[in-house]
Amino acid sequence: MNVTRILIISGHLLFSSGLESLLDQETNLEIMGQEKDMKRAIDQIKELQPDVVILDSDNSVTQVTPILHASPGVKVITLSLQNNDLYVYQAKQRVAMETEDLIEAIKDDPHDIKTLGGKGHN
């Protein structure tokens, strides 16, 4: 069984602790840590190389780019504490040798993320 390694970034202790408690119940998820300071979080991301970074939306979406630069291929999930929106960001680097490589990259993102209320954002 593959284990997904997660780092949580949030300035809200109750949010991050509650999220960790919920995710700890899943056997295939490992919480690698929590961080509230973005600079320290970037250092942790470089060192620990988590599979997923969960970021509360109080941290600006502009913080996603430095995370993706710190660990190419990491999946960044932002959660809105106000309206339950969830956004997923991920950067992938590929070599395009043929037109099919570009087409595959375009089709690779299914855009099927939904809000917790079940409304899709397509």
3D structure, described in words:
The chain is of the alpha/beta class and about 120 residues long. It has a single domain (about 5-90), classed as Response regulator (Rossmann fold). About 30% of the residues lie in helices and about 25% in strands. The chain contains 4 helices and 5 strands. A 5-stranded mixed β-sheet has the order 2-1-3-4-5, with helices on both faces. It is globular. The chain starts with a strand and ends in a 15-residue tail after the last helix.
Share of residues in helices: 25-40%
**Shape designation:** globular
Total domains: 1
N-to-C SSE string, H for helix and E for strand: EHEHEHEEH
The unreliable regions are 110-122
**Total number of helices:** 4
SS-based class: alpha/beta
Which strand-content bin applies to the residues? 15-25%
Brief synopsis:
This protein is of the alpha/beta class. The protein has helices at 13-23, 38-48, 64-70, 99-107; strands at 4-9, 29-35, 52-56, 75-79, 86-90.
